[in-house]
Amino acid sequence: MNRKSKPTLSKEGKITVLNLLKNFYNESIFNMLIKEFYNSDVDISLTSIKASASLGNEFAIPHLYRILEHGKNEQQIAAIQTLADINAPSTIEKMTKYFNIFQEPDIRKEILKAINKISALHPKTRELNKSILLDPKESGKDLFSQAIEGLVEAEQLDIVQPYIERTSPEVRLAIFNRLLLSTTREAGSFIQSLRERAREFTPETLGFYLCAYELKTVNPQQNFVLDLLQNTDRNTPAAFLSSLSDYNGKIPNPTQIYKILLRIPYIDPQAEARNGDLMIKIVNEVKAQAPQHFNELIFTTATHLETVFSKTKRQHLSLKGIKEKNALLTIPLAQTLELYSSPNLLLELQQFFKAEKTGNPALMVQKVKDYLHFAPKEDKHRFDACIPLFNITDRKVRLIISFTLSKINLNRLSLLHRLNRLTRVIGTLEIRNSAKKILEILNFSRQERIRFLEETCVVTLCQLQNRIVIEKAKDILGAPLSNLPQ
């Protein structure tokens, strides 16, 4: 009688089973996986090696060494990564020896990454990281960057400082992000020492640096952070807000951070929402931990509202009081250009209207339309209404148009968004003494048809529940919000 042969798993079936076994923390399972390390099929071998990456799986360690010594390149890489995940400090000394034996760049890179992951504080790890920094052949290369990050993790900042200039923007960003977790005075001193070089950083790196500077240095220089945030690439304040949002430690100077958030440039709706969340977080922290400073937040916000509104009214290109047809068209043209133009286009338009001989109107119109390509239909229609201005031949009228365009401030929209932010914060803090000012801003926004500001004013007035507002509720809230989307 023939004996039935045992069914065998296909290769794909075996790989599936090995992948499932990594979820079981058991010595017999570990041994089953180890047996497959030596399978002649490389895919099965790799799967079993990776499935052995369980924290504290000491059984696999000697076999992983053997794979590292005799396996193929992809098996060696997998073995090193698995040793890193097992996370046994006892493997560091052996792996530092392997680092010096192997010359293949990818193997050395993976070994250095693994031992820094296991313990950047281990004496052998620190010794290896330092030796890489001192090796001129490694300057600026991958191993150099890994060594820098390892030494920062170990807070060996005195060793890192002379080499910071050679690091890539990505490594610098990682360094500053890591220093936010530090609680040592050395971290603050290290960050402070880089202040003079801060302008050399890329915009994103600078944002992370400024966050670390404000949170970790003792007595940060007044207005240093704000000046850079206001006078640099828009990616810098975006990175600053991102870094600050991810920070979970105690904010040492909440009122100072709050003032920065009030004055930081407007970037986009997403960054503005993040800014709002941060301000609410700080207000709640101050209320809970230092209520004596809460009045300072209220005074600062109200004062900023007055200042920014006054500046906005002074700079705003208004239709109020204008009756002449061409002048009426020039203002919406200027307002549209403020939203979508560039300095070069503005200069070209001014020269077009200032020139003694009329240029090609159709060409200039098309250039503006190119800038309006992604604008809403409403703004495109507003520009279409202004096109007759380009065909005017009267020299005097054209000079008036050129003069009006010269008053365009491309930062004015940012100022309006800051006013909108302050209006919203007034409602959040329930600063009822500012209700009258919010009423003024509401009237201004309706008069000048500034949709987003009008909406914010109405919401804030509802939050304040001021007596004057309640008495005039029919006039204030009953008026149709003609500018708001239906």
Structural account:
- By secondary structure, this protein is mainly alpha-helical.
- Among the domains are: 174-289, no CATH class; 325-407; 414-476, no CATH class.
- It has helices at 11-21, 27-35, 42-51, 61-70, 73-86, 92-101, 105-119, 123-134, 142-153, 157-160, 169-179, 185-193, 203-216, 224-230, 235-246, 254-263, 269-289, 294-315, 325-340, 343-354, 361-371, 377-386, 395-406, 412-429, 435-447, 451-464, 467-471, 473-476.
- It is elongated, with a radius of gyration of 32 Å.
- The model is unreliable at 481-486 (pLDDT under 50).
Keywords:
486 residues; mainly alpha; 28 helices; 67% helix; elongated; disordered C terminus
Précis, in short:
The chain is built from 28 helices and no strands. It has helices at residues 11-21, 27-35, 42-51, 61-70, 73-86, 92-101, 105-119, 123-134, 142-153, 157-160, 169-179, 185-193, 203-216, 224-230, 235-246, 254-263, 269-289, 294-315, 325-340, 343-354, 361-371, 377-386, 395-406, 412-429, 435-447, 451-464, 467-471, 473-476. The radius of gyration is 32 Å and the shape is elongated.
Query: What series of H and E elements makes up the topology?
Result: HHHHHHHHHHHHHHHHHHHHHHHHHHHH
Low-confidence stretches: 481-486
Shape verdict: elongated
Report mean pLDDT, rounded to a whole number.
Answer: 86
Strand % is: under 5%
Helix content: 55-70%
Radius of gyration: 32 Å
| Count of beta strands | 0
